[in-house]
Amino acid sequence: MGISEDIITDELKYNEIDEWDSVAHMTLVGEIEDSFDIMLDTDDIIDMSSFAKAKEIVSKYLG
Amino acid sequence: MLKDKWVLITGASSGIGRESVKLFAKNGAKLLLLARDIEKLQSLQSIGIESYIFSVDVSNYEEVKKCFMQIRKITKSIDVLVNNAGILESAMFMMTNQKTIQNVFEVNTFSQMYVSQFVSKMMIKQKKGSIINVTSIMGISGANAHTIYSASKAAIIGFTKSLAKELAPIRVNAIAPGIVDTPLLDSISDEKKNEFIQKIPLKRLALPQEIAQSILFLASDMSSYITASVLEVDGGLCSI
Hints:
The complex is a heterodimer.
Chain A: H1 22-36, H2 42-47, H3 51-62
Chain B: E1 6-10, H1 15-26, E2 30-35, H2 38-46, E3 51-55, H3 61-74, E4 80-83, H4 98-126, E5 130-134, H5 138-141, H6 147-167, E6 171-177, H7 190-199, H8 208-219, E7 230-233
Parallel strand pairs in B: 1-2, 1-4, 2-3, 4-5, 5-6, 6-7
């Protein structure tokens, strides 16, 4: 997504910065699925509205 | 034409799907084949077509999801998707019950959406790919006693054009075969078939191979500037 690590905090929200738009969101989903070898449900992809929420959702699959 | 490209074909066991499998194999594609009938898929392997085969009902979202969990263990990329699975339903509208309406849309329409959703995720990451949705000229012109079938295929045209806009640079096109000589036609009488043939400017049914060739064209870089299109392969029938 080309985002500096400095701005990645739990508060970082989807669509709040130009780099995390709907297209980037799908790229992010693909990267998460490959990195963690999981397949996200569509409802979780929709719910992934912030970095904190993304961590929570991924944890659910890894737990 | 598709050397070492990963190609996923649904409804791969018979008709247009089966002919596409043979043609894509000849063109060097690495194949992922989906169909309900695993024995028919195995018969493709037995004639020398190297492929990964999956028994799956693509109208069932959970089955599709499980299938893609298996596919992800084989490849993380898919270059071409051919959404071909479908059923033909011939009945007068007032003689079509709710269960049939639901089933026709599940198999012909929703399945293409389910599979496309999983494949899109992979293609978006690659920033390239080609999706070919098999619709029908009945989805363009309508057909007597095929109201639900036509509606299910018309929905695919709207789906294709919208998805092409959303997913670009991934290309999304539809192919609209005319009347093709496949097992789907078994439910139609010879008399009715002849009636159809007389209306076709080329005066014959399409061969499944001819549809497969058009699918290959849309899958390959030969059609690199074509997206959001509906290619009519109908011997001129739709132009009447």
